[in-house]
Specification:
The complex is a heterodimer of chains A (250) and B (250). Helices cover 43% and strands 7% of the residues of chain A. Chain A contains 13 helices and four strands. In chain A, the strands form two sheets. In chain A, strands 1-2 form a two-stranded antiparallel ribbon. Chain A has a two-stranded antiparallel ribbon with strand order 3-4. In chain A, strand 3 and strand 4 (182-183) form a beta hairpin. Chain B is of the alpha+beta class. Helix content of chain B is 27%, strand content 26%. Chain B has five helices and eleven strands. Chain B has a five-stranded mixed beta sheet with strand order 1-8-7-4-5, with no helix packed on it. Chain B has a three-stranded antiparallel beta sheet with strand order 2-3-6, with no helix packed on it. In chain B, helix 2 (163-183) packs antiparallel against helix 4 and helix 2 packs antiparallel against helix 5 (235-249). Chain B is globular and about 65 Å long. Chain B starts with 13 loop residues before the first strand and ends with a helix. The chains are: A mainly alpha (250), B alpha+beta (250). At the A-B interface, loops of A face strand 4 and strand 5 of B.
Chain lengths: 250, 250
């Protein structure tokens, strides 16, 4: 079907419907009714079923290949991403076991003003598209997740756009933690806080969280916004050696 | 008494002082734009073809601009529309060789100040805060920023000169800063830490540092500072005079 865009009233109506959580499928008026408007010159197949968010992002990247990236990320197109949430709602939604509620609104509707800043990065369709368009297969680090799961890795890498848009970081993460179509175990585990760490405890070392810390340190000395992933990997300290060795062996 | 500095510079990276550069901000209402108007690098051995990179940051969002060669960088205004408008704005200015990502010099945490606003330990910035009137941002490396809702105060100077705003908001902002000082008392002795700048201010109020460690004593320490601060500036007397003057005028 031709792509549409939720209107401002459509966005409000969708948010209300999500918060009420009484139905399983959003009202028809949010799909192609008067709460929508004509959208971009592109089409999507609403019957598509995606195995994970990487497939989802790849599909959207193909369908939107001719549309300017800056425009797609702009406020003007927030309604497009919201509408895509409606189209693929049955795949994205998940009800909490305890409360029976859907995920919070920002996972479906682009939310730019949260208490701690923008939450736009949590919108399922937008972030899946953005990461694949920017990083190609390296986006698998974040997106090899079930359609209804945002995931801790995505939260870590997509929440700050200087990380989300850093090609060297994603390239390095793919090199270190991706083996085929699987992320190595423990890649995103939290290091034990220094005060609680016992001698010899290396939990989380060489992992994604520590990679972000290293990037923060390196950017004081390097222009990490424009360096290759190979250069970044070469600058990493020894704690990453086990992953670089495994990557070379694979 | 001289204080020991913990800063070192093993990489030989040149530090560009804020006084040696000027970034202009243009607020068009619907969009903010910036331009790098001045950059003085005299006395440094930087090749003419080195690149000038400007990174604008706000909250979790950032934008990177390659402004061209250091001898002829692009001074045209650049859009900041994609940056989070609800958080403080800061810049990094990086100088790198044309063929390498290793930095030659940098200016970190460059903040723009309203020209009409005085120097302050808690600089005020206007921001889009929805229905929130103000918020103290303590997340940055350069110290606290008092964010004020753009729809209430169109400029920082107007907020700073509003007796009601100052009397009702600043004491609470100071209390939050005191709590932050107490969280990392080592920062009070570290020249490179923003907390270091507060030592003289605390001393001027007759307050002892470091802050106490016990929770009860710490609360009293913070409350005592706020009270001394309010007494010094006689906020309530000012409000009283303002109220009386308004009564006479009506």
């Amino acid at each position: 079907m031709k792509m549409r865009r939720l209107t401002a009233d459509g966005q409000k109506s969708f948010a209300t419907w999500l918060e009420q959580g009484t139905g399983e499928t959003p009202p028809e008026s949010l799909l192609d009714g008067d709460l929508t408007e004509d959208g971009l010159a592109a089409e999507v197949d609403e019957s598509m079923v995606f195995q994970n968010r990487f497939e989802f992002g790849s599909y959207l990247t193909n369908q939107l290949a001719t549309v300017d990236f800056v425009r797609l990320m702009s406020i003007a197109e927030d309604g497009t991403w919201d509408w895509l949430s409606v189209v693929y709602f049955s795949q994205i939604r998940k009800r909490a076991k305890k409360t029976g509620r859907f995920q919070s609104v920002e996972h479906f509707i682009v939310t730019r003003k949260g208490l701690k800043g923008s939450l736009a990065y949590r919108q399922a369709a937008r972030t899946s598209f953005e990461l694949v368009r920017f990083h190609g297969s390296a986006a698998k680090v974040c997106l090899l997740r079930a359609m209804n799961t945002f995931g801790d890795t995505a939260e870590q890498l997509a929440s700050r756009n200087y990380l989300a848009r850093n090609s060297a970081l994603f390239g390095a993460a793919a090199t270190l933690y991706l083996r085929g179509d699987a992320v190595v175990k423990g890649a995103s585990s939290y290091p034990t806080p220094p005060k609680k760490r016992k001698k010899g405890d290396r939990k989380g070392y060489g992992g994604l969280r520590r990679l972000q810390i290293q990037l923060g340190r390196l950017q004081l000395t390097y222009d990490t916004g424009d360096m290759s992933s190979q250069d970044l990997v070469a600058l990493l300290p020894r704690e990453f050696d086990k992953h670089t060795a495994a990557a070379e062996a694979a | 008494m001289p204080r020991m500095t913990r800063r070192s510079n093993p990489t030989g990276l040149g530090e560009i002082a804020n006084k040696n550069l000027q970034i202009n901000l243009l607020d068009l209402g619907h969009e903010r734009q910036f331009s790098l108007a001045r950059l003085e690098l005299s006395g440094r051995s930087i090749p003419n073809d080195a690149r000038v990179i400007c990174v604008a940051r706000s909250g979790s969002s950032s934008l990177r601009y390659d402004l061209g060669r250091v001898d002829s960088w692009d001074r045209a205004p650049r859009s900041l529309a994609d940056l989070d408008a609800s958080a403080p704005l800061s810049f990094r200015v990086l100088i790198r060789p044309s063929g390498s990502s290793r930095l030659l010099a940098s200016a970190e945490n460059v903040r723009l100040r309203d020209q009409a606003q005085g120097e302050s330990l808690i600089p005020i910035e206007i921001a889009d805060l929805g229905q929130l009137a103000w918020r103290l941002d303590l997340d940055g490396d350069s110290g606290p920023i008092l964010l004020v809702n753009r729809s209430v105060y169109p400029s920082a100077a107007i907020a700073e000169n509003d007796a009601q705003f100052v009397a009702l908001v600043l004491p609470e902002a100071v209390r939050q800063v005191c709590e932050s000082l107490a969280e990392d008392p080592d920062g009070l002795e570290d020249e490179s830490d923003w907390r270091f700048q507060w030592v003289d201010w605390l001393t001027g109020l007759g307050v002892q540092t470091p802050p106490p460690e016990q929770e009860d004593a710490l609360e009293r320490w913070c409350a005592d500072i706020v009270m001394r601060f309010c007494n010094r500036h006689m906020f309530c007397s000012t409000l009283e005079r303002q109220r009386d003057a308004a009564g006479e005028g009506s």
